[in-house]
Design brief:
- The structure holds two protein chains of two kinds.
- Chain A is an alpha+beta fold.
- Chain A contains three helices and seven strands, in the order ααββαβββββ.
- In chain A, strands 1, 2, 3, 4, 5, 6 and 7 form a seven-stranded mixed β-sheet that branches.
- In chain A, a hairpin with a 2-residue loop joins β5 and β6 (115-129).
- Chain B has helices spanning 20-23, 25-33, 35-38, 163-167, 171-179, 201-208, 214-217, 219-232, 241-246, 253-259, 287-295, 297-305, 351-365, 370-385, 417-430, and strands at residues 16-18, 41-45, 54-60, 63-69, 75-79, 94-96, 100-102, 109-111, 116-118, 144-148, 151-155, 186-197, 261-263, 269-271, 311-313, 317-320, 325-333, 336-346, 393-395, 409-411.
- In chain B, β3 and β4 form a beta hairpin.
- In chain B, α11 (287-295) packs across α12 (297-305).
- Chain B is globular and about 85 Å long.
- The chains are: A alpha+beta, B alpha+beta.
- The interface between A and B is large, with 32 and 44 residues.
């Protein structure tokens, strides 16, 4: 495996680790300004805008979410939730000079009080290599699509980030 | 189960409600036998079963049903069990069954109006008295079904008000949602959001007309959107659609007070009589012209100007015409409810409408919605808090007037009149004896 491939795999693990550590500001820094986080409502959904999704969020909405989690009147986070990602080794689907696509199987667990639930599925990342800035070539997330195994099920609150 | 003292549970005028109404499983069972049998419960939309043989499965209260388009093009509602041994005939939520249903257990078959078609090796039933059995009649069919402009309602009981007497003027909210299509037609889009709540279904109904909670309970979500948008906004940019949808949740008490509430007989009512949090959405290019062409200027403006907030249809449905959303509060147990949130396409209108509707649905109604998180937290804390024996009463006295219910009535926008309307009628239906 090339150093480049190892870096990509490490990047995917690191993203999940930042969520689990609840370092949300650092986590969001991994996303480009025009990034998109998408969790479809239907298995194999292709339509993005003209049907319901569970999440379809730009950086503004992701910023709102992480701000809300810190809010002193965010009662659904009193007490706070925790989460845990268990990832399979990311599969690199496409790799070229400016973009990379990966697919990673996951088991995600979220807690609140005594209860916990698990979501299972695959996450597809589209990563972009920065062309300029402080770290030319550094990876950023342009698009993250979370495919749940059971997106249509009657879930209760899903409050953190898969 | 002893007889339930309904009068002891709902104080006169619906001003105070005993906590057992939300927590007691015997009361829940009685709701299934009375409230959900005697009233016209929403089943589905006819666009879900466009062709003959198309079906959709759901529940009415705790009764599994199949909504199916029969060979005569009429929509039938059948109870989802084989008359033989009780096997659920259809497990899929949607599909096409062709001309008949076939039980997977013994291949008994039924036409799509429930009538019997065939039983294999049937000579074994000769001279057994089978001809007079329940099983011989085929699938049980709900005889009171109404297709109101595409919205299918059913009443399980043979007793109760007619469709028109039950809904009276409240149908105007469904009319407004449909009339917003230049062709006067809606279509269901996609699957519904389904959201599990560990609370009683009536807490969700109450919340639809609770106008004193948004600026408080949603400070964490809508308030944060307001704050973040303010910090990043660029005068050169127009307000993003999502900001336009969520900011009105932070409207003041005064704003909500002025919007008003309207109630109708039999437990129906709505918020947002003169304007609502949906009134100031941006115009969508091309739509005004389409509406004027379809309806004429005056009628088109009257349809578009009617921006009601939430219309509650007794017992368990809410319609939001301005965002083409329908929500069902599906009772599972006294302390368990699944909320389904459906959206519709305004047939003939620009796609931007559907984009906004789909956005509203995921931002507000999804289990991943930060607005939903705020609400669910309140319901589930209420379900737990009601275990306190020292005070068993839920208070709904805000803006109470003695003569406030009966016919069509208007109330101040922060009144709890529609909640009282719900419980007064709930108590009435709970007291009915069902002999059908």
């Amino acid at each position: 495996m090339s150093t480049d491939q190892q870096d990509i795999i490490h990047f995917i693990y690191a993203e999940a680790a930042l969520i689990d550590a609840q370092k949300f500001t650092e986590w969001l820094d991994l996303y480009t300004e025009d990034a998109l986080y998408w969790m479809p409502l239907e298995f194999d959904q292709t339509e993005e805008h003209l049907t319901t999704s569970l999440m379809y969020e730009d950086k503004l909405l992701l910023t709102v979410r992480i701000n809300r989690l810190q809010g002193h009147r965010t009662y659904s986070q009193k007490p706070r939730s925790r989460c845990h990602h268990l990832l399979q080794t990311p599969e690199i689907l496409e790799i070229n000079d400016d973009e990379v696509k990966t697919k990673t199987a996951f088991h995600y667990t979220e807690t609140r009080n005594d209860e916990q639930f698990t979501l299972v599925g695959w996450v597809e990342h589209t990563l972009k290599r920065a062309s300029d800035g402080e770290k030319p070539g550094a990876l950023k997330i342009l698009r993250k699509r979370v495919n749940l195994l059971n997106p249509e099920a009657a879930h209760s609150n899903i409050q953190l980030f898969v | 189960m002893g007889k339930i003292d309904i009068d002891g549970l709902v104080r006169p005028g619906g001003r105070e409600i005993h906590r057992d109404v939300f927590t007691d499983q015997d009361i829940f069972q009685q709701e299934m036998k009375t409230v959900f049998r005697r009233t016209w419960v929403y089943v589905g939309h006819d666009s879900q079963v466009q062709n003959k043989g198309d079906f959709y499965t759901t529940t009415i209260g705790n009764q599994p049903v199949i909504m199916v388009r029969h060979t005569d093009d009429q929509i039938q509602v059948l109870l989802n069990r084989c008359p033989h041994k009780g096997v659920k005939l259809v497990e899929d939520t949607n599909g096409s069954t062709g001309k008949f249903f076939r039980c997977p257990y013994h291949a008994w078959s039924f036409k799509t109006d429930g009538s019997p078609l065939g039983i294999p090796f049937n000579k074994g039933y000769e001279e057994t008295g089978f001809d007079t059995s329940c099983a011989k009649k085929g699938m049980c069919k709900v005889s009171n079904v109404q297709n109101y402009r595409g919205f299918i309602f059913a009443r399980l009981s043979d007793e109760g008000e007619s469709f028109e007497d039950f809904f009276t003027g409240s149908l105007s909210s469904i009319d407004n949602m449909i009339d917003r299509s230049p062709e006067g037609r809606l279509e269901v889009v996609g699957k519904p959001l389904r959201y599990m709540h560990k609370c009683n279904w009536k807490m969700l109904v109450d919340n639809q007309t609770d106008t004193c909670h948004p600026m408080i309970a949603h400070e964490s979500s809508a308030g944060t959107i307001k704050r973040v948008w303010k910090s990043v906004q660029d005068e050169t940019l127009s307000k993003p659609m999502v900001v336009e949808l969520v900011l009105p949740f932070m409207s003041s008490y005064d704003d909500f007070e002025k919007m008003g509430i309207r109630t109708w007989d039999n437990g129906h009512g709505h918020t947002g009589v003169s304007g609502s949090i949906h009134s100031d959405y941006s115009d969508i290019d091309g739509y005004y012209g389409q509406m004027v062409d379809a309806y004429g200027k005056d009628r088109a403006e009257s349809i578009m100007g009617e921006t009601r907030h939430n219309t509650c249809y007794f017992p368990n449905m809410m319609v939001k015409g301005a965002t083409q959303t329908l929500r069902l509060f599906i009772p599972i147990a006294a302390n368990k409810t699944i909320v389904e949130s459906w959206i519709f396409r305004l047939v003939g209108a620009p796609d931007t409408f559907l984009k906004r509707t789909a956005m509203y649905n995921r931002i507000i109604n999804a289990p991943t919605s930060i607005v939903g998180h705020d609400d669910l937290e309140m319901y589930e804390r209420a379900q737990e808090g009601l275990s306190v024996d020292a005070n068993p009463w839920v208070n709904l006295q805000r803006h109470y007037r003695e003569d406030e219910l009966g016919g069509e009535q208007l109330h101040p926008g922060t009144s709890e009149a529609q909640m009282r309307n719900h419980y007064v009628n709930w108590a009435r239906y709970m007291s009915t004896e069902d002999n059908s």
